[in-house]
Specification:
The protein is an alpha/beta fold. The chain has three domains: 224 residues, 3-Layer(aba) Sandwich (Rossmann fold), CATH 3.40.50; 304 residues, TIM Barrel, CATH 3.20.20; 52 residues, Sandwich (Immunoglobulin-like), CATH 2.60.40.1180. It contains 17 helices and 25 strands. A seven-stranded parallel beta sheet has the order 6-3-2-1-9-8-7. A seven-stranded mixed beta sheet has the order 11-10-12-13-20-19-18. It has a five-stranded antiparallel beta sheet with strand order 21-22-25-23-24, with helices on one face. α6 packs parallel to α9. It is flat and about 80 Å long. The two termini are 38 Å apart.
Length: 682
């Protein structure tokens, strides 16, 4: 087809990030090693004897690293300025004696009750003006100066005390940073106003950015600014700025903590359990991670392979370093899990570039917010079946770390993601009937998963990045799936990427609003019509649509389609069942590159055939062929296969191979048990 034959242009050479951006393989903690460990709360245990028993069981299971310290500020500082490290000192010593390394979390959230009592500015004030008691985790106003002052002192005290301790392996910050609640205190309103003054300079500029000419919302003075309600109703521009403000508050705290780490323990990496996509607040990690992250780390609680693969890929960001699962599912969905499921997910993590799995949690909780949570040790202090399963994982990882794992990925495909766009596409309720019009809430994550799915099933490594903050010359293909708010930096970077020889695919519902979340008053896509060589301002609801891509017939309910009006672009595919057979896909030569536009939201049935037509011309090689539910990656000439389903799966292989994990000899076909894994070598 013309679509593919025309894409034979030169691409920029793959280039690495600047040295400060991510860790080189030579500087990995334990380069060429895999880590199995656990999360441990020594302050929950009954005394030295039980803790010593715990540590010996960790050692016997083959664990290497333990994450602890999180959620325990008042155990270290029971009263302001009065620190007590006696138990933690002893535990650190015992961990070292057992050969276990420690990721020490700075437990900045939740803040202690004594801190809330003495410094009420740390209390959350809800959008109706009510001051809330800190009755659950993360009900702390982290923008409060007293909170920050005391947190920095805690971090400074802890890192100085353990800087030379032989057990110390890495530092983590504020468990699940990004979770929590926004606050509406008068002090927060004033801080928001200060943030707006810095961003806009004048009230006149703020009025323009917030479209205050609509519905009598004009601001005459800065003091008339109010924090908009987080759960609506709008207006959208103000809500976006409010979420940006709170994102920066989270990032500022992470920067403060990393400054302490760099001062006191510069030889230890930052491996923090971040939660940038937390629903209540979240923050813009992908635009800022270089300021406080050494390795992407997260809590890994997968529900399905596709979303698990996408989220872990997003947490890796643009780094060449591996991913750390600082919290890891201890048994699969729910608290009880299924035998074999955690082992399967651990090997799935290796496919995604993971270096460590640390199950949450070591011991089952007797009280608190997770009192029914079952860990590796049951409530009666007996080891559960889960400990044996993770001991198996540790043994297998000890083998695999000598055979090409963790995998260093250099993906050639990137998918665009941004915090601003997530906010813009998850709008607060409108004032009319508490609804949001469907077209202006296109649902970014649904499109992102749909764009990712065919690549994922083809076992191709992908990066999920903020395309305005990365060197796009590292990639051959950049996909922009329903990025409704495509900021100026991203548009500028995309323009250069295509001009220099890159290929971009943009789907419908992209680049509709500017940096202030207002619709462009120019032809769409905003600021990129010349790059894509078209105008697309109209759209229609269609239902089932039919087209042909590279000989593949596509017939599916693709939802609304945009009316593409090419200027310099060529039509590569048309919808065969619409009046006039309107364009379904166009391609435009811009500079040395190509810009491809898809008239509908990203859907696997459409994106898969399109990608497959591009692979050869872009030098993108699909990974091993696998049946549905089985995923695979090659490492040092060996192939790791993971069956994520509850059914046996047969995988066609080339010739005879040895199964490193099963100890079996396979010829022509690999038989994977339900949740089964194997590493094949010649």
């Amino acid at each position: 087809m013309k679509l593919i034959a025309s894409i034979t242009f030169a691409l920029a050479t793959l280039a690495g990030l600047p040295a400060h951006a991510s860790a080189d393989t030579s500087s990995w903690p334990g380069a060429g090693q895999l880590f199995v460990g656990t999360n441990y709360q020594p302050f929950d245990r009954s005394g030295h004897e039980q803790i010593e028993h715990d540590i010996q069981r960790m050692k016997q299971a083959g664990f290497k690293v333990v994450r602890m310290g999180d959620l325990a500020w008042d155990s270290f500082e029971p009263a302001e300025g009065k620190f007590d490290f006696r138990l933690f000192d002893w535990v650190m010593d015992r961990m070292h004696a057992a050969g276990l390394k420690v990721i020490m979390d700075i437990p900045g959230q939740p803040a202690p009750v004594w801190l809330h009592k003495k410094y009420p500015g740390v209390d959350i004030v809800d959008q109706h003006g009510a001051r809330l008691d800190p009755v659950e985790r993360y009900m702390d106003d982290t923008s409060d100066p007293n909170y920050r002052r005391l947190l920095v002192r805690l971090a400074d005290t802890m890192t100085k005390r353990y800087a030379k301790h032989p057990a110390l392996f890495a530092i983590g910050y504020n468990n699940e940073s990004g979770n929590g609640m926004v606050s509406y205190s008068e002090a927060d309103r004033q801080r928001f106003i200060g943030w707006l003054k810095h961003k806009y300079g004048t009230v006149a500029a703020l009025n323009k950015a917030w479209a205050t000419q609509r519905w009598s919302r004009h601001l005459n003075t800065w003091d008339e600014v109010r924090l908009p309600y987080i759960d609506g109703p709008g207006p959208y521009e103000r809500n976006l700025d409010m979420r940006r403000f709170w994102s920066e508050q989270t990032i500022d705290v992470l920067k403060l903590l990393d400054a302490v780490r760099q001062k006191n323990v510069p030889d230890k990496p930052a491996i923090s359990n971040l939660w940038d996509s937390a629903g209540r607040k979240g923050f813009d990690m992908l635009a800022t991670y270089r300021d406080y992250v050494s390795y992407g780390a997260m809590g890994f609680y997968p529900g399905d392979p596709l979303s698990a693969g996408f989220e872990s890929t997003m947490m890796r960001a643009g780094m060449k370093a591996p991913i750390w699962f600082n919290e890891f599912t201890a048994g699969g969905p729910g608290y009880y899990g299924t035998p074999g499921r955690s082992r399967m997910w651990a090997h799935f993590g290796l496919l995604m570039g993971a270096q460590a799995v640390l199950p949450w949690t070591w011991h089952s909780h007797h009280g608190g917010e997770e009192q029914a949570l079952f860990g590796l040790i049951d409530h009666d202090d007996r080891a559960s079946w889960k400990l044996d399963e993770f001991a198996t994982v540790a043994k297998e990882f000890a083998t695999l770390e000598k055979l090409g794992f963790p995998r260093l990925q250099e993906p050639k495909v990137a998918i665009a993601y941004s915090f601003d766009n997530m906010i813009a596409t998850n709008l607060p309720r409108e004032g009319v009937n508490n609804t949001v019009r469907p077209y202006i809430n296109p649902g970014y994550m649904k499109q992102a998963h749909a764009a990712y799915e065919p690549l994922f099933k083809d076992n191709i490594d992908v990066a999920v990045i903020h395309i305005g903050h990365e060197d796009l010359s590292r990639y051959k293909l950049v996909i922009v799936p329903g990025v409704y708010l495509l900021d100026t930096a991203s548009r500028t970077n995309l323009r250069k990427f295509v001009s220099d020889g890159g290929t971009v695919i943009m789907t419908a519902q992209s680049d509709k609003v500017d940096d202030n979340n207002q619709w462009f008053d120019t032809p769409l896509p905003g600021g990129l019509t010349d790059v894509f060589g078209l105008r697309t301002n109209a759209f229609y609801n269609a239902g089932t649509l039919q087209t042909t891509i590279g000989g593949d017939e596509v017939k599916a309910d693709l939802g609304a389609y945009e009316v593409l009006e090419p200027s310099t672009a060529d039509v590569l595919a048309r919808f065969s069942n619409t009046d006039g057979k309107v364009p379904a896909i166009t391609v435009n030569r811009f500079g040395k590159g190509r810009a491809i536009y898809v008239a509908t939201a990203a859907q696997p049935k459409l994106m898969g055939p399109l990608y497959r037509q591009l692979y050869d011309s872009l030098g993108i090689a699909p990974g091993p062929k696998t049946p549905d539910g089985v995923y695979a990656r090659v490492a040092d000439g060996r192939t790791l296969y993971v069956n994520t389903t509850g059914e046996s799966k047969d995988v066609a292989i080339d010739g005879a191979m040895n199964g490193v994990l099963t100890g079996k000899r396979w010829s022509g076909v690999l038989r994977l048990d339900p949740l089964g894994v194997d590493l094949l070598e010649k």
